[in-house]
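for the recovery benchmark. tokens below, seq after
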């Protein structure tokens, strides 16, 4: 029994490592565009609004079409293969993006990231829920969620170096090529785990047949408020992640590589913060299950304070600005791992990937789609009044979106005990 458990643990950890690496590469592909915004803007003569459309609209439209259908597919089919094909296609489109000749071809290439995340992320979370027990699930989810921070770090440090020395086209092409190779590694070295089916009570099953999985998931107060909380958190996070690199160059007058190192340090803090939130949640929930959503509330509240402080720093106060943005980055991802783990504990296994896809869809449409576009639009609109500070004012408004995120997760926290009790009752029966 002990040897079986050890073997299972090694296999699970290897799968987690590959899934996290693919997540990191996918996010690197998305984040690196914020690193090379200025060179692309100059080469193609784009406005801030057009940059927002490139970074947000192509991704949001594609994910909006594919997110939930891919989640449903992951609930029914081989998840390993789905992840490999989706991530691989995302890498291929990234390669094609390196050949872009203007606004429309560049925006089309961004759809690859949406295909990658739509097919890869919900299925990855579903696999981990079958590989790790409940008491370790937040920690496993935090490692997977840390893939985004790792990807941001690679984009900001490695991506900025590559862009500085080899240009933005070669940077994007290399990311796409490595993604293709790791997708093949997943396909041929990872096995599909056995699904752990969760019983669904008769009423819910009838509801599922009548209204569909999406409607049944939305009808549950806990999942509904969690989805809304994720939407607002990602609206703020994606806006900041897309535009902060350009803000540092404009507001603090530093070089591309200097901005890369500062942003890289912030990404390291985000990585540590994401991992810390998972470990902290697993520890605190042993005393009180409500901490599963209490950690997201606490983290986003502290992130809001630090984000506002950072954006109110005057030009040239680079040391204090760097410290505040690093602390902001540490707390910002605290919502992700505990929330996804909570969903895996509450939502029946037959709907788990669909529920995760709905959360990601909210993030893709509201966060990645609207966030980057609105920030660029507000920056253009505010320029006559604030001049070079227009982008900073636009980002300040986006950071304030963390307040409704805190409110939504507070309501999810209130609904969580009842939802968990129903799930445990169904499992026991």
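predicted aa per position
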């Amino acid at each position: 029994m002990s040897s079986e458990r050890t073997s299972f643990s090694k296999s699970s950890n290897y799968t987690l490592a590959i899934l996290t690496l693919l997540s990191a590469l996918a996010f690197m592909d998305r984040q690196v565009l914020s690193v090379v915004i200025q060179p692309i803007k100059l080469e193609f003569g784009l406005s801030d609004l057009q940059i927002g459309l490139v970074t947000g609209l192509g991704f949001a439209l594609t994910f909006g079409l594919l997110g939930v259908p891919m989640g449903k597919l992951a609930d029914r089919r081989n998840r390993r293969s789905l992840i490999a094909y989706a991530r691989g296609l995302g890498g291929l489109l990234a390669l094609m993006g390196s050949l872009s000749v203007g606004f429309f071809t560049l925006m089309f290439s961004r759809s690859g990231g949406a295909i990658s995340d739509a097919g890869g992320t919900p299925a990855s979370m579903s696999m981990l829920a079958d590989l790790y027990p409940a008491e370790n699930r937040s920690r496993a989810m935090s490692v997977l969620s840390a893939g985004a921070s790792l990807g941001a770090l690679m984009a900001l440090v490695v991506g900025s170096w590559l862009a500085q020395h080899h240009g933005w086209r070669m940077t994007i092409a290399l990311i796409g090529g490595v993604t293709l190779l790791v997708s093949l590694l997943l396909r041929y070295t990872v096995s599909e785990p056995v699904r752990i089916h969760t019983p669904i009570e008769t009423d819910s099953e009838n509801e599922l047949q009548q209204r569909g999985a999406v409607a049944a998931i939305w009808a549950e107060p806990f999942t509904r408020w969690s989805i809304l909380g994720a939407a607002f958190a990602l609206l703020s996070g994606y806006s900041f992640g897309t535009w902060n690199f350009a803000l540092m160059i404009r507001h603090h007058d530093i070089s591309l590589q200097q901005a890369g190192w500062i942003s890289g340090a912030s990404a390291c803090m985000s990585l540590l913060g994401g991992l810390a939130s998972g470990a902290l949640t697993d520890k605190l929930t042993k005393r009180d299950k409500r901490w599963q959503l209490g950690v997201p509330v606490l983290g986003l509240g502290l992130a809001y304070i630090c984000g506002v402080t950072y954006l109110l720093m005057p030009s040239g106060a680079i040391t204090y600005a760097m410290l505040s943005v690093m602390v902001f980055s540490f707390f910002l991802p605290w919502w992700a791992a505990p929330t996804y783990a909570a969903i895996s504990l509450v939502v029946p296994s037959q709907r788990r990937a669909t529920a995760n896809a709905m959360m990601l869809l909210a993030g893709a449409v509201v966060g990645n789609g609207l966030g980057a576009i609105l920030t660029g639009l507000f920056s253009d609109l505010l320029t006559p009044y604030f001049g070079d500070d227009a982008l900073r004012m636009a980002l300040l408004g986006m950071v304030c979106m963390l307040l409704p995120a805190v409110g939504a997760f507070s309501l999810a926290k209130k609904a969580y005990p009842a939802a968990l009790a129903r799930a445990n009752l169904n499992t026991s029966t």
